[in-house]
Amino acid sequence: MKKFLKYTLAVIVGSFVTIGILMIAFFIMVGILAASSQKEITVKDNSLLVMKLDGPIVERKTSDPISEAFSELLGEAAPIGLNQILSSIEKAGRDDRIKGIYLESGMVMAGHATVEEIRDALVEFRETGKFIISNAPVYSQKSYYLATAADKVYLTPGGMLEFQGISAQRTFFKNTLEKLGIEMQVFRHGEFKSAVEPFTRTDMSEAARLQTITYTQSIWDHLTANVSESRGLTTEILNQTVDQVPMLRDGEFLLQSGLIDGLKYKDQVINELKDSTNTDYEKDLNSIDIRKYAGVYVADEKKGISKNKLAVIYAEGEIDGSDTEGIISEDLSRTIREARRDSTIKAVVLRINSPGGSALGSEIIWREVKLTTEKKPLIVSMGDLAASGGYYIACPADTIVAQPNTLTGSIGVFGLIPNVKGLFNKIGITTDRVKTNKFSDIPAIDRPFTPEEKELMQAYVEKTYDIFVEHCADGRNTTKTAIDEIGQGRVWSGKNALHINLVDVLGGIDVAIDLAAEKAGIAEDYRIVELPEVLPPFEQFMKDLTGDAKAYMKNLFWGNSEYGKTLRTIENLQNAYPIQARMPYELNLN
Hints:
The protein is of the alpha/beta class. The N and C termini lie far apart (63 Å). Helix 5 links the parallel strand 5 (131-139) and strand 6 (152-161). The chain is 46% helix and 18% strand.
């Protein structure tokens, strides 16, 4: 027995020692990574900017060397910020050391509007007289669209190019829910509010079909118009080519159709790049990756540091959702409030990339946006999505800027509450309750709503919709009737939205920044500050670890893997329907 206890104690002590050593090694690694991230980066003369966009593109990249290290360890590309990409392309245009861009974006992971912003920046880069060469073994449709901004588009022999139009598929769960004995009780305002349809139908409603074909056709028309201009083809010929499914055709077809400029292996492309930079074939090309180049300082024409600041505030993700990277209404509203009170900040650009979310969270943010417009210019710049709650927080802005292929609008409200009584009966679960008042248990998920409860819930939805419409009418200087006619939960493309007064200007964040500076009277003298402030790598890591260690580490290890997505889905269900349900405060603007 003594030996057993001795060995057990030795194992316990050894385990603690091992854990201690691992923790020390871990923090040493953090320090090394943080220090390495601060090393000065040099750019050689006669260099290429290499844009290998093989990882997720987010609105703004935070400083997180640990996540990057694990991504590299797992063989996955770490996320890169759209702000990094755009600033790097702009800098490269005025950097005499950069002669051109080599683009590898075969499987770009971004939305249509994000790709549009990068493509616009590449088009501006070419206007400086510098070249862009694109090459990839496989092009997705978005990647090909991006590549058409280049002087030359090359495909590896035997490679594949996807260019076949846009489709939108919906998955419906009504039959499955019925088999499980689950009834989804729906409360909504807006015939186009199709987010509820997967739970109540087996196919698209006519309203959902109409709105989907409208915005997909708008996005496709915009995409083909730009590709036609870049490739010197008419849209009619381009669509005829698309209908022949280029993805399943050989390289000769792609060449003859004018979609690409050549079939070249990597070594042949490298030789062409050497020719373009007057580099000897026996020497290596001077190049710098865009991730590193993002940290390079390149002087502009401005002298000194301006006292005038223009704040760019980022709002990305679901509003008050369970995702740790979404929009937390209290945090975002605080950031906007601080920018409003800062006298050195003369104007604000609110960059929104959000599908919506909590109605209450949207209202909290809306209030701060509204107050800020009364103090200084506030321009909204829309990314891939600024729909429902995303539009709610945008509507008070002085000017709303969107890309032609941004998805916006969706002015509507819904609530979903499951009745799982049938499922409980199937598996032998019973429930019982006591309550002090008539509606003490609302909303219960183990029984159907009574007619009176349904009436109360629907009235709550109608009231929320009325507030939404009123805010939009006030912000857009129109009537509630006019907003209601284009609302009803309908989703629009940015180009559609321009024609119905939901959007003022088409363009990217650069257009929004120029407008904000002009309205503030600082167009010739200002500097940009991005908010919320990005902490240094080590401080950011410690904040994440101490603030929400469980969520941080889970996201670090599982990320966007299938297992990680499953974990988040389970958590969403747990958070959405706890025993003490929070439904009165959880109406959705999605």
